[in-house]
Amino acid sequence: MKSKIAALAMMSASLGMISSYSYAQVAGTQPLGVSVTESTDLILGWSVKKSVLNKAVYNENGEKVGVIHDIIVAPDRSVSFAIVAANQFLGVSHHDVAIPVEQLDYTDGKLVLAGATKAAIKALPVFQYTKVKATPTPRSEFPHH
Q1: pLDDT at 20
Q2: Which of 22, 29, 48, 124 stands 20 to 30 A from 117 (CA)?
Q3: Can you tell me whether residue 34 is helix, strand or coil?
Q4: How open is the CA angle 39-43-49, to the nearest 5 degrees?
């Protein structure tokens, strides 16, 4: 009896392995998750959470001028702005500003904002998030879907 159960378990496991190959993700056919092409992009990409968020921003002289608190993604999925805290005490931001990501560089393992000083960043207008609608817009109401 035990040998029949073991044989059945092995057979079903091998069938499961065979069937998993037949259901591999194919670009453009996977309804949920990522396609093969997207998973390659995912592997070659990098994590904003681990690489950018809450990381210090320096000027070209190595002086710390702020900390990145957020990344703004535009409706076309492009990364448009970094929200930089010019003044922070114990993790609480006192003056967030929007900096176009094109102005940031990654040099010698540091995020660099050339020409920046703490005073220059504090002189920029404070960034404030717009109020989010109480109810999200359904996908069907977007013209590109």
Answers
A1: 41
A2: 48
A3: coil
A4: 110
Residues 33-48 have pLDDT tens digits of 767 676 776 677 777 7
Q: How many residues does the chain have?
A: 145
Q: Higher confidence at residue 21 or residue 133?
A: 133
Most confident range, picked from 90-94, 112-116, 121-125: 112-116
Against a cut of 0.85, is the pTM above it? no
Alpha helices in the chain (DSSP H): 2-22, 36-44, 48-51, 118-122
Strand partners, 26: none
Domains of the chain in start order, with CATH, are 2-42 (no CATH), 46-122 (2.30.30.240)
| Total Cβ atoms within 10 A of residue 48 | 15
| Tokens coding 105 | 């560089």
Q: Measured on CA atoms in the order 45, 69, 99, 110, is the torsion positive or negative?
A: negative
Handedness of CA 94, 54, 98, 76 (dihedral sign): negative
